[in-house]
From TrEMBL:
Native source species: Hermetia illucens (Black soldier fly)
Similarity comment: family membership: Belongs to the cytochrome P450 family.
Keywords: Heme, Iron, Metal-binding, Monooxygenase, Oxidoreductase
Entry keyword Iron: yes
Chain residues that bind heme: C438
Lineage, top ranks: Eukaryota, Metazoa, Ecdysozoa, Arthropoda, Hexapoda
The name this protein goes by in its record: Cytochrome P450
InterPro entries in alphabetical order: Cyt_P450 (IPR001128), Cyt_P450_CS (IPR017972), Cyt_P450_E_grp-I (IPR002401), Cyt_P450_sf (IPR036396), Cytochrome_P450_Monoox (IPR050196)
GO molecular function: heme binding; iron ion binding; monooxygenase activity; oxidoreductase activity, acting on paired donors, with incorporation or reduction of molecular oxygen
Cofactor needs: heme
Amino acid sequence: MILLVLFTLVVAYAVNFLYKKWRVYRLLLDNFKTPPRHPIFGTLTIFPKTAPEIFKTFLSLFGKYGKNFVLTRPILDAQIIISDAKDVEAILTNPNTKNARKAAGYRILEPWLGTGLLTSYGEKWFTRRKIITPSFHFNILDDFVNVMSKQSDILMKHLKSMAGKGEVDIYPIVNAFALDVISETAMGVTVNAQADPNSEYVTSVKKMSRAVQERLHHPLGKTGLYNLTSKGKYQKTLTTILHNFTDKIIGERRDQLLSNTKIDKGSHMNFLDILLHASVGGKPLTNADIREEVDTFMFEGHDTTASGMAFTLYLLSRHADVQEKLYQELKKVFGSKDEMEITNKKLIGLEYLEMVIKESLRILPPVPGIGRQLMEDTLIGGTTVPAGVNLLLSIYAMQHDPDYYPNPEKFDPERFRSQSDNKRTFAYIPFSAGGRNCIGQKFALLDLKTLIAKVIMNFKLLPGPEVILQGDLILKASNGIRIRFEQR
Ligand code: HEM
């Protein structure tokens, strides 16, 4: 009898669950365009197998189905893809920012990042954001520029050894640079990715970035069942290595503070120090709390920036006129390459460099799209979409939409000479926008400017093959980002 009652309850729950899902599913399909659907697999079947082909097919859908459309997956799962800047604005500027919950896909980052700033929401996100925001104060960024400049000198030596010797895939090289900069600024230690690319931590970060991308495409990727697969177990092993490393750094730094060893104020205050000094409701953050944030910075602060750096150099290598104009601006500010002293103030004065970077981040945005799960009913394209629905805001599609950017495939930094065109504001969001925008935006721009300025003052860039793009969490090139260097 008890079994019968239990069985009936389970069936009733399942029917109710599916009925509610079906109603949302129907609402979305009745109000948004959608590509042809397979009865079980939904629109998954229109996508080819490889990551570059998936990205190409995805982008072609905007031409066929308009700025917003729906994609479906098994079990009545529907997601709205959005590239109408008006709708993006309404979603990102919702005054209830605390409730900006990330889409279900972000949960694949949680084994490594926990629920740090990127993945959390509600009160936890709000409190952490308040604590972390001062880490990006102008004065602190000033100190960080010294780290960026020092690390870029190491990179120059590395590039010199490669100049004039044919094509180089620039992505892993600038990735190591970005990792060194973020580790020194976030944790106060150098992981020496440039000098020692084979250390356990450095290789584990790289493997983890790849493992996360793979998980994104795995049918069980977003479920707990993934942890039982061999790939899931591999991700767990990497997580343990990465956590052990961060735990050790945090533990040592806390002990140093407790034993009253004075933090050397002559050196920069890093994010870790700020977190160790912070408290919530009078209680200090635990080591586990701090680890979430340090790991989040290590992930979000290096792959993104490396993608931006590598693609900017790639675009410059293919546009000799822009490169020359930039070189002339840099020469005026820095004099000769041997006397280059990089400061925050000098970088801010480089107007054309800023335009070049902005246009690069438009044409090849490191984060091609961001996901949200609606926490309240929201009007999208004239339809009230119920809470719970997952959205993908396509940064790439908006920034390539001819309605917002005439001749969108043309690399033209002059687009950013005038900032007066308000129509475009939310069509250009490489760092997202609103309350949950990128907290590291200023940091990333300084990092990009330092590296690009140093490279262009020292080298002439020449083109290699065209990139084949793949756009998962981070925009990358499946054939590498290959260019040639000649020493100036
Ligand atoms: C060119 C480089 C970068 C780009 C294009 C970029 C882009 C973005 C974007 C689009 C978001 C929104 C993500 C979402 O809503 O899901 C974001 C969030 C975030 N970024 Fe960046 N980012 C860059 C560099 C950095 C750096 C250097 C750091 C750290 C130093 C950083 C830390 C973060 C964090 C912690 C968040 C979450 C913020 C929150 O939700 O409150 N990013 N970034």
